[in-house]
Amino acid sequence: MTVENQKFIDKIDQTIIGFVLGLIIPMLMFVLYYEVKYTSYTWKEYVDGAKQLSTLPSFIKISVFANLPVFFLFNLIQKFNLCKGIFIASMLYIIAMFVVKYAL
After folding, report:
1. pLDDT tens digits, residue range 79-90?
2. DSSP string spanning 37-86?
3. Contact between 81 and 41 (Cβ < 8 Å)
4. Burial environment of residue 95 by CB neighbours within 10 A (0 to 12, 13 to 18, 19 or more)
5. Exposed, middle or buried by CB within 10 Å (0-12, 13-18, 19+), for 79?
6. Rounded distance, CA 67 to CA 98, Å?
7. Global model pTM greater than 0.85
8. Nearest to 72 by CA among 82, 59, 62, 63
């Protein structure tokens, strides 16, 4: 890596940035999952189907799974604050999944 790229990566090594990434990546995965698997449905039908309490935990699991490669990449380059933020965001999603699955 060049010095300029290294400085940029050092600047973004903050827990809050990792947290925001950890929240956004699953949302992007939710959209990508629609584009790959459910294109026969309209967006409204897809979202309404995902809102059903029986299927929502599955959608959350699939979406949060996308955080793993990003987490391991930042762990590999030793940007542990970013990892911490991604981990916290993932835990929030997982807690929401358990609440939906078992408490509602």
Report:
1. 999 999 999 999
2. H-TTS-HHHHHHHHHSTTTHHHHHHHHHHTHHHHHHHHHHTT-HHHHHHH
3. no
4. exposed
5. buried
6. 18
7. no
8. 82
